[in-house]
Design goal:
This protein has 589 residues and is of the alpha/beta class. The chain has three domains: 106 residues, no CATH class; 202 residues, Type I PLP-dependent aspartate aminotransferase-like (Major domain) (Aspartate Aminotransferase, domain 2); 142 residues, Aspartate Aminotransferase, domain 1 (Alpha-Beta Complex), CATH 3.90.1150. 43% of the residues lie in helices and 10% in strands. It has 22 helices and eleven strands. The strands form two sheets. It has a seven-stranded mixed β-sheet with strand order 1-7-6-5-4-2-3, sandwiched between helices. The chain has a four-stranded antiparallel β-sheet with strand order 8-9-11-10. Helix 10 runs parallel beside helix 18, helix 12 crosses helix 15 and helix 18 packs across helix 21. One of its GO terms (biological process) is carboxylic acid metabolic process. GO terms for molecular function: carboxy-lyase activity; pyridoxal phosphate binding. InterPro entries: Asp_decarboxylase_pyridox, PyrdxlP-dep_de-COase, PyrdxlP-dep_Trfase, PyrdxlP-dep_Trfase_major, PyrdxlP-dep_Trfase_small.
Amino acid sequence: MSIPLLRLLNANIRQQTSRCGSYKVTCAKVCAHANSRRCLLSNSSAADVSLDALYRIFTIPEAPDSTLGRIERHLSENLAGFLSDHIVAKEKPLHEIEEDFADSEIPEQPTFVSEHTDELLNKLVAHSVHTASPRFIGHMTSALPYFLLPLAKLMVGLNQNLVKIETSKAFTPLERQVLGMMHHLVYGEQEKFYQHWMHSAEHSLGAFCSGGTVANITALWVARNKLFAAQPGFAGVATEGLAAGLQHYGYKKACVMVSERGHYSLSKAADVLGIGRANLVAIATDKNNRMDIEALRKGCQQIADEGGRVMALVGIAGTTETGHIDPLEKMADVAAEIGAHFHVDAAWGGATLLSSTHRGLLQGIERADSVTIDAHKQMYVPMGAGMVLFRDPALVHAIEHHAEYVIRRGSKDLGSHTMEGSRPGMAMLVYSALHVMGRRGYQLLIDQSIDKAQAFSALIHQQPDFEVVTEPELCLLTYRYVPADIKEVLANANEEQMNRITPILNQLTKHVQKSQRESGNAFVSRTKLTPHQYFHQPSTVFRTVLANPLTTMQMLSEILEEQREIGENAPHTLHALYAEARDCGLLSG
């Protein structure tokens, strides 16, 4: 990776590569009460309420030597150091944290800003999660480039509301441009297409939203309204409701097909849109955790035989649990054959399109009617930057809403085509990230993350007491700890033996993951899969996401070593494991 790009993500990599155990709280350094400017203060020894004081907190910034001033300076100069100083490594039980937030009364009197900031540092920041740590490899949240912090402050200070041009002005065409850039990344239309549609008042190439959940709901909202469109004698599902739509079109039910690895947001969508969670049909996956196309065809035919209608097929480009990608090209074929809306949930994997090396993994996504992408995942912007893109700019007509006081007909207000009304200008941060890092910079980040995942898989394969459960296709993989002699005999275990041993291994995996998390040295998550090689027995596994460019192979080796140490020092579980292995004939004696 180029040196300039690394500097964008962290000006002081040495701070981040220290063990998480050094993340002790040193609030006293930053939170001295002396010289802190006191807001809501009327020349008295305690905070008081007055209009003059209230006016001042709207017009006068905190002094540079105040608590907030020092925090802001520390954040801008050394974010990694601030997080390391203020986030406690050893986990505090949640029930104890809840005690700090148990008061339901709104404070009657104001508090000095300095005192309130101290409280936040001690109660909130100290017990937050250090998602920027290169040893935090358990979830899809990573380090942020430094330049986004002051830009985010600028965005908050401008306080634009993207529902309407009157409250956002230049932010509206900027957001439309970002949607055009992402649409071009996915669909690759000619430039004249974007010049014609990007700023069209009556059309939209997509919508920004808070995240993948709202993006997926929006896509299926379009699919539902398109399927049950207005006809003579029927005003449309948006007006008359789903029951009337089913009756008018002669269907007993409307269904959405998704792999069994589909995100839980799709269940929410089925609920919210009225089709019912029972009609979100989970299709079996193959041994590589990709949708089984033959099972999909059979499922679609069964729905038709039952008098139902397939409303949409949902392909996953980067499953949450294993990071795998459905056969999108073949799914597009099926969708075309049966006339169903084809949506791709690429909340995680969509950024892979920025890599010319790996974008072929998503072959077929360009045939999707709609695509979800989360910029706050592998595009390294703050949380709250989801997108849904539509191949046809006219699709948004299916969900169009107007109101005289805010989103009038003929205006270019973005709110007429979005589920959410008031929204912040997150597109500004995506716009900046795309320009500051560029496609080639993103390619470096994507490529190194996939390379690192493959290298970590190779490292695990070299260990006598660990085994890879799912190989990485993107930068996500799963594995588990298994004592070496148990691992050796499991290679030849029959189904009954595997079924007896797996529950105890699940207990061991859970113990190792929980203990490592509580120690604060590192974090991997865990999930439960039904791997082909384990006779589909529900198996608890470690789940790692290697998106942070500051994570090194040395750190990954240390994480394995800590897991091994925890596993070897779990006598109760190990005793039960070996006893069961002997009892079922895997071990002698």
